[in-house]
Amino acid sequence: MKKFLVILLSLVLAATMAIGLTACEPDDGPGEPIDVAGVYTIDLSESGMPLTVYLQIKEDGAFTFAADDSFATAKSAGTVSKPDTDYLMIFSEVNGETVTTGSKTCHFTEQEDGSLKFNGEIPYGKVTFKSPMTNDDGKEVIFYAIPYTGGGTTENENTVEPGIYYGEYTTGKGEMGTVYSYYLTIREDGKFTALVTFSAMGNDCIGYDYGTYSSMGSACRMTSAVYDDKETQDDLTEALTVDEDGVYTADVRTSRMASDTVKFEVKKLTASPTEVIASYEGEHTVSMGPTMSMSFELTLDIYADGSYKFTAATDGEDPSVETGFLGIENMISRAGILLPDGMETPGDITLDAEGALHGKFSMGAGSRQDVTLTPVAA
Question: Quick one: signal sequence residues (predicted)?
Fold first, then answer.
C-alpha cells in the first residue's frame, strides 16, 4: 500500500510539472488567428519627418512594415503574438537582413477605436523610430497605427535619392535682399555635404554644412556635425523632402549667423556644377633625405557645390590629382573641413588673416603634406 501511494504521488507531481511547463510556454501566435490582423498606416509627421509608414499584420501573426501598401519591399518584418494584455512584435528581418530572434522587439496595445498604440523601438530600413519620443519642439509624440481602408496606390511614391540638389533662398526685399545659393549633396555613403555662397556688406561669403543622414521614402533627415551639438539621432534638425508632385523642399540652416532653419524649393541636378568659386595656388618642397628634395607647383579649384580639385605637379612626373569636398566658412570661424574622396574622416583647414588657406593635401604616393595656398586674383 505504501509503495502504491509513493507511485501515485510521483505520477501526480509529474503531471503537475507537465501542466506548469506547458502553461509557461509563450503564445507564439500562429495556430490561432490574430484579432488585430489588417493593414494600418503610421503618420510620422509630428516627429518632424513628413512620412507615412504602412503596416500589414496577417492572421497567422506575420507582420511587415513597408513604404507603400503593396508591401513589395519590406523595411522590416517578423511575427506578433499576445502573451498578455499587450501585443509583442518580434522582428526577424530588418532592411533585408536577418536579425537574431529576440534582439529587436516592440510592444503595442489595441485602442477602443481600433488603432494600435506603440511602446518601444521600431526598426524601419536603416533607421529606428521610438514611441514615445520627444520632437524638436520638446513635445512628447506617441505613434499610433491607424486602420487603412485604401489600397493599390499611394499618395506619394516619390523618394529622396542620392544626388546634388540646388536652390536659392532670398531674405529681405529689393536691393536690401540677400540671395543664398545653396548646394546640397546627398552621398551614397550615408553622409551629406552642403556649400552656400552669398554677398554680405560687399563681401563674398561662403558657408558649409556636413554630417550624416537618414532617408526614408520621401524624407531625408540630416544630422549636422557643424550646427548640432553632437551627432546623434536626437539632433536631426535639417531635412530634404519631396512631395507627390516631385517638388523638393530643403529645410536647412544657410549660415552660422542664421538662428533657425529656413524652407525653400530645390531642384535635383543632372550634372555636377562646373563654376569655380575660388582658386588657390602655392609651392611646396618635400625633403627626401639629407641631399634630395622635390618641389611641387600646387593649384586648388573649389567648385560651387564644394567639390574641389587639387593638383601637385613636379618636373618629370605625372601630376598628382586629389578630389573631394572642401567646406569653408569665411565669416566667423574662418575654418572648415577637407574630405578627400575615399577618406572616412575629414581633416581641418583654416584661413589666415591674409586669406591664405592652410591644410593637409596629397602630394602623391600616399604622402599628405601641410601646405599653404594663396588666393588667385580674379
Answer: 1-23
pLDDT at residue 6, rounded to an integer: 41
Domain ranges of the chain: 38-147, 163-268, 276-375
38-147: CATH topology is Lipocalin (2.40.128)
pLDDT score for 29: 43
Distance CA 194, CA 257 (A): 16
Q: Is the pTM of this model over 0.85?
A: no
User: How many CA atoms, within 13 angstroms, populate the side-chain half-sphere of residue 38?
Assistant: 14
The whole-number pLDDT of residue 138 equals 77
CA 100, CA 103: separation in Å to the nearest integer?
6
The mean per-residue pLDDT over the stretch 91-106 comes to 93
Highest mean predicted confidence (pLDDT) among 1-15, 95-109, 165-179: 95-109
Rounded Cα distance between 122 and 117, Å, is 12
Q: Give the tens place of pLDDT for each residue, 273-296.
A: 999 999 999 999 988 777 788 899
What CATH number does domain 163-268 carry, 1.10.10, 3.40.50, 2.60.40, 2.40.128?
2.40.128
pLDDT at 151 over 60: no
Q: How many CB atoms lie within 10 A of CB 315?
A: 8
